[in-house]
Specification:
3-stranded parallel β-sheet, 5-stranded parallel β-sheet, 12 strands, 8 helices, alpha/beta
Length: about 290
């Protein structure tokens, strides 16, 4: 039920924008509005947007506007629930606006795609969206395209998934990976005083929040000055700028290699972490 961005550009004849999309993806929406899919019978894509009235919508080319699907000021999760309910032919306390237009477009569609991001959709909304797509696939075909708010963050999630089988917020305290999004929430652990050492890795220098007295901070960041409040500051390069890198690309929906834009002598974060591990552990890291 998921689809790649390239397949969306080529085939999607009905595009449904679910919730607010990060600004970095507005160009993709404009590109979809300005091109014709090979499965379309009317030489243009139909656009719908799911969300409360007043929600910002990416601009479409040619002055077009997406048809709004909303239940007034109801939340995104509630609107998706009502949309799913009406699609099944059941009554709702508040009907979704323009539902008949949406139903007609789906009935004629060959390749509908729902664009969404965890940036503005909480867990219940995403669950309702997945349920709606699953319902549509019982009799026809529909897909979802995830558009992450941060490409580096999503790339880290994918790397964690293929190495451990779980996304981030996975712990190794018992010698094997355990996924617990509450217990392994770094911000919560720091606030609760559970941690005595914080290793912060970021290409951008940001002043840390007020730290606990007994917690030491080691900062790996691109900087020429020590980070305030850090016990140790190690300068690192930025991936794709100071050194070659492999990064996640939302445009292709996969990883891609990029050359350094301004190669420098600054080491990568991976190099520093490996050096630390070499001195901290008797056995070398597996990869």
């Amino acid at each position: 039920m998921t689809v790649a961005p390239g397949e969306t550009r080529r085939r999607a004849d009905v595009v449904v924008i679910v919730g607010e999309l990060p600004r970095i993806h507005h160009g993709l929406v404009g590109e979809l509005a300005g091109t014709v899919p090979d499965l379309s019978t009317v030489n243009q894509r139909a656009f719908f947007v799911v969300g409360p009235n007043g929600m910002s919508v990416p601009p479409l080319n040619g002055g077009r506007e997406a048809t709004r699907l909303s239940c007034g000021q109801a939340s995104l999760a509630a609107t998706l629930a009502a949309l799913r309910t009406q699609h099944k032919g059941r009554r709702t306390s508040q009907p979704v606006s323009n539902f008949n237009d949406f139903a007609k477009a789906l009935a004629a569609a060959h390749f509908p795609v729902f664009l969404f991001s965890g940036h503005a959709a909480e867990g219940l909304a995403l669950e309702m969206l997945q349920g709606l797509i699953a319902d549509l696939n019982r009799n026809s075909r529909a897909s979802g395209l995830h558009l992450p708010a941060n490409e580096n963050g999503w790339g880290s999630t994918l790397a964690s998934a293929w190495m451990t089988g779980f996304p981030l917020r996975t712990g190794f305290a018992r010698g094997f990976p355990e996924f617990d999004p509450w217990r392994c929430d770094v911000a919560r652990m720091i606030a609760a005083g559970e941690a005595d050492l914080h290793l912060r890795i970021s290409a951008t220098t940001a002043q840390p929040k007020e730290k606990k007295r007994r917690m030491a901070l080691i900062a790996l960041t691109k900087t020429q000055e020590p980070v305030a409040g850090a016990a140790v500051t190690i300068a690192i390069g930025e991936a794709g700028v100071d050194h070659d890198a492999v990064v996640y690309s939302s445009r292709t929906g996969s990883l891609r290699s990029i050359d350094a834009q301004a190669a420098s002598q600054l080491p990568s974060a991976a190099t520093i972490i490996r050096l630390i591990a070499t001195h901290a552990f008797a056995e070398p890291l597996p990869c």
